[in-house]
Specification:
By secondary structure, the chain is mainly alpha-helical. The chain contains 8 helices and no strands. Helix 1 runs parallel beside helix 7, helix 2 crosses helix 7 and helix 2 packs antiparallel against helix 8.
Length: 197
């Protein structure tokens, strides 16, 4: 890509990657509740899935979604249900004393990302705006997917570190209950926002 196209790409996708969405709220919650190291499996699950989704969209998933609009709606509602399940897990963290819950796993990261309809729009927009059919198609798809993966992974890990930093602002004895309530409610609001939007 030219310098101008690269600048446009960063200005468009930088804010999208760093904005609070379902995955970023979860990264912040995980960093806050469990620390950076325990958040890595979930981080890997979501980001490896992002790479495969971007490649699939670049290679033709846009056609499937445009041909079968119901597929997008199925993903949307399944994502809302899964977000509510994760909200329940964080709310449970706020009331559970004896048995602490485990951090989200690699498998749950894959599920969250598979149901994250917001993310599917990002590579779809990217390929419609920055893909040039007259150039080598496959290498363009790989370069754009790699750039998006680096941006997404960086953004997600920043949210994990922000969540970890947030923990230091709360008294340790009360932090688990307060964080569970706060992040559980944030996920409920996110699910409602996706449902309405």
């Amino acid at each position: 890509m030219s310098t101008e196209a690269t600048t446009q790409w960063i200005l468009i996708f930088g804010p999208l990657a760093i904005s609070p969405g379902p995955a970023n709220v979860l990264f912040c919650a995980l960093g806050s509740s469990f620390g950076v190291r325990s958040s890595i499996p979930f981080w890997l699950g979501t980001n490896i899935t992002c790479i495969f989704q971007s490649l699939a969209i670049g290679l033709g998933l846009v056609y499937v979604i445009s041909t079968y609009p119901a597929a997008e709606q199925v993903l949307k509602y399944a994502g809302i249900i899964f977000l509510l399940y994760l909200a329940y897990r964080f709310l449970r963290l706020s009331v559970t004393e004896a048995k602490p819950i485990k951090p989200l796993s690699f498998k749950e990261g894959v599920v969250v990302e598979m149901l994250n309809a917001k993310y599917l729009m990002i590579p779809a927009v990217m390929f419609t705006q920055f893909y040039s059919p007259e150039k080598d198609g496959f290498s363009q798809i790989v370069v754009l997917t790699t750039a998006l993966a680096v941006l997404t992974m960086s953004s997600n890990i920043m949210w994990v570190f922000a969540g970890k930093a947030f923990t230091k602002l709360i008294v340790k004895s009360k932090s688990q209950k307060n964080q569970g309530k706060m992040f559980g409610l944030m996920l409920c609001v996110t699910a409602l926002w996706i449902l309405i939007g």
